[in-house]
Amino acid sequence: MFTTLALESDLPEIIDLLADDEIGQKREHSDLPLPAQYYAAFAAIEADKNQLLAVFEYQDTLVGCLQISFIPGLSRHGMWRGQIEAVRISATHRSKGFGTEMISWAIEECRAQNCGLVQLRSDKTRIKAVAFYQSLGFQRSHKGFKLSL
Description:
The chain contains six helices and five strands. The protein has helices at 11-18, 22-27, 36-47, 75-78, 98-112, 127-135, and strands spanning 2-5, 51-58, 61-71, 80-89, 115-120. It starts with a strand and ends in a 14-residue tail after the last helix.
């Protein structure tokens, strides 16, 4: 598998990946042309040195994506954290080891940025994803809350 920073030209495929499940279908708009908000978000991610949007290719096909946010903090003696978000593997490439490879890559990127902790969130209804992250050593440690604005 080949990993690279996402390009703006990858956006349609990335949004397709994000929309490729029950939850994503309800919140993403992958019809072309993509809404301008996706391009504005991509530009903000690309301009922020503490953001990394990666795509993963296999045999010249984009098979996965994820985003890492490198977060400075005062707690834990000023420790940095790596927050992994928007992890997706194409439906045809799931359960073939690509997810493990992607998360391993993301953890190494966090180490390279001197993060002392890697965290991620997964919707509690994504039972297989939760089990997958636990199989990689991630532990449920907090109860999360959201407030839509």
